[in-house]
Structure of Alpha,alpha-trehalose-phosphate synthase [UDP-forming] 7:
Amino acid sequence: MMSRSYTNLLDLASGNFPVMGQPREKKRLPRVMTVPGVISELDDDQANSVASDVQSSVFQDRIIIVANQLPVKAKRRPDNKGWSFSWDNDSLLLQLKDGLPEEMEVLYVGSLRVDVDPNEQDDVSQLLLDRFKCVPAFLPLDILTKFYHGFCKQHLWPLFHYMLPFSANHGGRFDRSLWEAYVAANKIFSQRVIEVINPEDDYVWIHDYHLMVLPTFLRRRFNRLRMGFFLHSPFPSSEIYRTLPLLAMEQMLKQHPKWQGRAVLVQIANPARGRGKDLEEIQSEIQESCKRINETFGQPGYEPIVFIDRPISLSERVAYYTVAECVVVTAVRDGMNLTPYEYIVCRQGVSDSESSSESSGPKKSMLVVSEFIGCSPSLSGAIRVNPWNIEATAEAMNEAISMVDAEKQLRHEKHYRYVSSHDVAFWSRSFFQDMERTCKDHFRRRCWGIGLSFGFRVVALDPNFRKLSIEHIVSVYLRSKNRAILLDYDGTVMPQTSHNKTPSAEIISIINTLSGDAKNTVFVVSGRGRDSLTKWFSPCRKLGIAAEHGYFMRWSANDDWEVCGQNGEFGWKEIAEPVMKLYTEATDGSTIETKESALVWHYCDADPGFGSSQAKEMLDHLESVLANEPVTVKSGQFIVEVKPQGVSKGVVAGKVFTTMAESGKQADFVLCIGDDRSDEDMFEIISSAISSGVLSSNTSIFACTVGQKPSKAKYYLDDPAEVVNMLQSLAEASDPEPFSDTIPEGSL
């Protein structure tokens, strides 16, 4: 019987549990490397290390491609003594090499489709490494069954395709033993990778939902590892049966009798990878539907439905594509479906007469595709349909085969230009370039491992990024003569979690003291409206305020507000507000804030996952409808904001620096503090101000973010409490001028 600790995620992640009741194997694969180097011990008790100090002695560009299955075929020799292996030329993984640099070595890690006896595994491993540069991950049968046919196919695959278990009889409930097998399998994969990796030199590219835990295992071991993950959401199995142009062909023959006796639907259904009673019922239902349609509309020598439910060879599939006038792909949710691309290439190889493939006649093709599949947006000439709408799909099929040849030719030419230039090599090259760009600074950054189990994360920061020393900034502050101090409000001097956003008497006193020093130019730069900021900071007479990210700006309480926006027209609000209201009605806990110059949608009180999803969708929606308006749409911390162009905190900072320089008081001390994305504009403007001469190269710069996170700032403080403490220290070192306002008689 399992103990409670056995089911703990931390134990699962670290591998400290028996493998599905089996004793742990003492025999390990031989440790192999294709490049000389020093290898640290890889025993399980060291798996919690988050850093690698091992540097290979020879540098060589290499990428390790990890997937559930290796791109090789295996079969037993006729004499039953050993195995013979060959490349699987249809494997997508094998084609990835075409997009990688020619000099780059490629190593594959994955499982085999056959069961290899434990006594043969070492020999098979060495043979595959020597001849194919492949490293096999051998999964015990009980783990393999629960990992692949269990957790992957019964839980992950349905979730990725929106097929939820609405009842106990539909899809099955969560089974923890399947999850444990999934973790165990990923652990085995990680051990195979660790045995061959040069962590300082290699790239690792992990593929698909079978191995979603693997990156965590590897990142815990090597926190600077250059690693990428691609989720394919592969072509579904049982979904093929659910969404057959199930019924759309029958509808088309009813609505358009002219096609009876002429149109034939050849339905190729890839064999289902999963198992279960549910799948068997669906297959039986499809067989009955095909039989019914053929009996209703069939004639001697003619059947409208040809249903192929078996594996077919590449040449047979190409033959079908070549003669097809139209291809219909109606998956409800799909990732990397290459069927439309394959069809287009095949049609490019046939002439209009179909009698001579050598002819140079015009080429034509037609596609009807589900609007939900991943390749749909790239096929602008295809007819897109909602596959759940049988009538619409039937009409689309009729439109496709009824279209004039000239239009078919134009659509085909457009698609072929795209497909011929966006092949697997193009995708592979693009992904690798993205991974290179993302990982280029890995080895010069300082890294920290944070969290336990699958909550583990690595924070990588610039080596110059450090905590702001109060003693240091105070000493520099005392030596300076012209100081610029720019303070964000929410999340900087006021905690984000505080319900009462009114500044405390302590904050008012500190800011009043700082702004009262003749050597200081102090600004609160906030996204809040000017009415709130004016009311809150009314005691601070010499404080500058930039409201609504700088759309409104004033230098002191005695000065008038300046409008810094480029355009005073707000007709765009009539376009943006209805869109925001639409999402507000659909997102419980969200609100709209109407500012003088901007509209802000807040979703901090909404469900985090749903709110984030809605925010991304709203961002795209607003950018689309406001494309011709003089505004920018930005996302921030639980917000989506629409504001006029040319308005940012960076513009405020630049204006403060420029005004000080023009008045003969060029800043020799700059303190700029903020906590979110909008404050990064202030940090960014500092370097350009130095290069343009507005700030001197000798100016002491203290750009500081709140919290340890990637930032353009050089310094950080942990939280608003530390910010207030630092400002208090500066206030104590200040020399405020006497309060000069006239005090009304009798007020004492």
Remarks:
- The first helix runs from residue 9 to 14.
- The mean pLDDT is 81.
